[in-house]
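Task: sequence in, structure out. Protein: D-2-hydroxyglutarate dehydrogenase, mitochondrial.
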Amino acid sequence: MWRSSLVRALPTARAFSTAGIPRGAFAKLNDADVAHLRSVCKSVLTAPDEVAPFNSDWLNKYHGQSQLVLRPKTTQEVSEILKYCNEKKLAVVPQGGNTGLVGGSVPVHDEIILSLGNMNQVEAFDEVSGIIVCQAGCILENLDTYAGKHGYMMPLDLGAKGTCQIGGNAATNAGGLRLLRYGSLHGSILGIEAVLADGTIVDCLSTMRKDNTGYDLKQLFIGSEGTLGVITKLSVLTPPRSTAVNVALLGCESFDAVKAAFVQARQNLGEILSAVEFMDRQSLDMVMSQQPSLADPLESACPFYVLLETSGSNEAHDMEKLEAYLESVMEAGTVIDGTVAQDAAQAKKLFGIREDITLSLSSRGHVYKYDLSIPIDDYYKIVEDTRAALADHDAEVVAFGHLGDCNIHLNISTLKYNDAVQKALEPFLFEWTAKRRGSVSAEHGIGTHKPRFLHLSKTPDAIHMMRQMKQVFDPNGILNPYKVLP
Ligand code: FAD
Ligand code: MLT
Ligand code: ZN
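Result:
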């Protein structure tokens, strides 16, 4: 759960990964540019203290030196801004809720920040199909509340839902807690309106589920991290909201038992299974260390935990299935301890522990964050190998993630940034992942952190095609330069 009241204790800022990136041959912003941009966009920030928060990312790792934030309200404004910036060769970074974890949403140098937060209107909702059409700056949680009033829900859920925007979610192809059930945004997003670097408005804002009329252009913007166009509107298919939701936290003795609990959950719970999340004991300890009032959720301390959610429409039927599942995994010794939430408040609390890991890590000190796809048999091996590699360092290794999607969040925490730890982790972890044909970014994206490692998950031909696409969409390279492509 995203709790704005839990203020992050920010560690000393250190802009490490961007420090060596040379500035591209872009124009420098001048007074005439600012005057023109003011004439096309009403909301403009230039005061250093107002611009500052837009220059730093959520992790406080990446810091730009932009002098200008533009906050358009309409697609037309976005178009006029980009047309001008393209003609003048001024670089631009699109920014949503600025909750990205790979440094994609902040400038590397002095790029103009195009913040989408003022484009926050829902334009239409179809009660029959559950399709919502909205502007890109709508906050995910607000959309979920809106859909909820009509008996529907957003198909994605993540800890940053109170701040991240649907445009940012699309631009990063965010995964989150519900991907297991509702699939990726490549399936749920039915249409996109985007503005290209030269100001062209691309209207692919279909609200049809089926549309086989040639290349599906909207897919290119999903996961493009603001490098191909600025997403201004979206249509999203929202599923019906489940009326019966159960949450169980299970403790396991080994990672093999975690796998067995997952396999059996898929077999026994089938269509009602909606989330399977994983965390190790070190993750729970991390949250408890930052929230001393939090009690151990199970009677015994277990080395591994699985958080299960079922969502359906028949409370009695779902509970019967869940109880049968729990009985069988406990009897087999797969699960050694567990608890089932008795009401919505308890369910929220259990999910809150899982969602608070991120905030707890960044509150503790410096965090080295890796978001990897790893084949299930090696899912926890990477954690053990990392602990071995860091045996001589004072570093906590914490692992959690979307088990159902083979997506592990491997986090290393030190009280302060430590260069030796950084060097021990990279390229080691990315190469380890590539050897098993995993992905160096399961869901957070490439941003500024990983362009150097893209070749470990994409072939040279694929990277060449990506460059060609960038050239077609943004020939002057003004949109989110230095990100994604090496
Ligand atoms: P930003 O951070 O502002 O931007 C992210 C990228 O998208 C940047 O490259 C930016 O240039 C681009 N962008 C933003 N808006 C637009 C637009 N309208 N048009 C074009 N480009 C745009 N991610 C997951 O995938 N799963 C999770 O479970 C998850 N949990 C998180 C939990 C916490 C506590 C935090 C802090 C982050 C989490 N994230 C997660 C990462 C992050 O929240 C997601 O990547 C989210 O989708 C980013 O949305 P945003 O609006 O904050 O985008
Ligand atoms: C999560 O699943 O909690 C997020 O992706 C955030 C993170 O990896 O820290
Ligand atoms: Zn995640």
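Residues 1-13 have pLDDT under 50 and may be disordered.
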